[in-house]
UniProtKB/TrEMBL annotation:
Residues 20-208 form the ABC transmembrane type-1 domain. The keyword Cell inner membrane applies. It comes from the Bacteria. Its main location: membrane. The chain crosses the membrane at residues 20-46, 58-78, 84-103, 187-207. Keywords: Amino-acid transport, Cell inner membrane, Cell membrane, Membrane, Transmembrane, Transmembrane helix, Transport. Belongs to the binding-protein-dependent transport system permease family. HisMQ subfamily. This is Amino acid ABC transporter permease. It is found in: Cell inner membrane; Cell membrane. It is a multi-pass membrane protein. The lineage of its organism: Bacteria, Pseudomonadati, Pseudomonadota, Gammaproteobacteria, Enterobacterales.
C-alpha cells in the first residue's frame, strides 16, 4: 500500500471520530439554538415595541456585518481580558448561535412577511386571535417557504464549524491539523478532511431535497 494511502487510512477514524464527537454536535446544538433565537428576533422585528425592534436590528446588523472568525476570537480570546472566561466548546456554541440567529432571523422574517395579508384577514374573520392566526395559519405557510434557505444555512454551518479549530475545539479540522503537524503531510490530510466534510454535506443535501419534495407535495395536494 502506498505511504499516502496508508496515512489516509490511519487518519480517517481519528478525523471521523472528531467529526462525530464535536463537529456534528456543535452543528446541531448551534443550529437549534440559533434557529430559536432567530425566530424570537424575527417576531420582535415584526411585532415588537419600537425599542425592542431597534435593539434586535442592531444585533442583526452587528452579527451579519462582522466575520464569524472575529466573533469567535472576541468571545474566546478577548472576553477573558474583562474577567469573562468561557471554555472552548461553549464559546463556539455561543458564537455560532449568535451568528446563525442573526442570519436565520432575516430568513424567518422574510418568509412570514411573504404570507399574504389576506391570510391574516381570513383568520381574524373567523374569530381567531392574533396568536392563533400566527400559529395555525401564518407559521405553517411560512415554514414551507423557509425550508430551502434554512436547510442551506444548516449545511453551511457544518462547514463553518471548521472555524472552531482556531479556538481549540477538537473538531474534525483541528484533528487533521494535529496529524499533519506530526506527519508533515498536510496536503493528503487536508484533502481527506475536505472529503469528509463533502460526505457530510452530500448526505444533508439529499435529506434537504427529500424534505423540500415533501413540503412541495403537501402544498400541491393541500394536505
Amino acid at each position: 500500500m502506498p505511504d499516502w494511502l496508508n496515512l489516509a487510512a490511519e487518519s480517517f477514524w481519528p478525523m471521523l471520530h472528531a467529526g462525530l464527537t464535536f463537529t456534528i454536535p456543535l452543528t446541531l446544538l448551534a443550529f437549534v439554538l440559533g434557529l430559536s433565537l432567530g425566530f424570537l428576533v424575527a417576531l420582535a422585528r415584526l411585532y415588537g415595541p419600537k425599542p425592542l425592534q431597534y435593539f434586535v436590528r442592531f444585533y442583526v446588523w452587528l452579527f451579519r456585518g462582522t466575520p464569524l472568525l472575529v466573533q469567535l476570537f472576541l468571545i474566546f480570546y478577548a472576553l477573558p481580558s474583562v474577567g469573562i472566561t468561557i471554555s472552548a466548546f461553549p464559546a463556539a456554541v455561543i458564537g455560532f448561535t449568535l451568528n446563525i440567529g442573526a442570519y436565520s432571523s432575516e430568513i424567518i422574517r422574510a418568509t412570514i412577511k411573504s404570507v399574504p395579508v389576506s391570510q391574516w384577514e381570513a383568520a381574524h374573520s373567523i374569530g381567531m386571535s392574533w396568536r392563533q392566526a400566527l400559529v395555525r395559519i401564518i407559521l405553517p405557510q411560512a415554514a414551507r417557504i423557509a425550508v430551502p434557505p434554512l436547510s442551506n444555512t444548516f449545511i453551511s454551518l457544518v462547514k463553518d464549524t471548521s472555524l472552531a479549530s482556531v479556538i481549540t475545539v477538537p473538531e474534525m479540522f483541528l484533528a487533521a491539523q494535529r496529524i499533519a503537524a506530526v506527519t508533515y503531510q498536510p496536503l493528503i490530510l487536508y484533502i481527506e478532511a475536505a472529503l469528509i466534510y463533502l460526505f457530510f454535506s452530500t448526505i444533508l443535501s439529499v435529506l434537504q431535497n427529500k424534505l423540500e419534495k415533501h413540503f412541495s407535495r403537501e402544498t400541491v395536494t393541500g394536505v
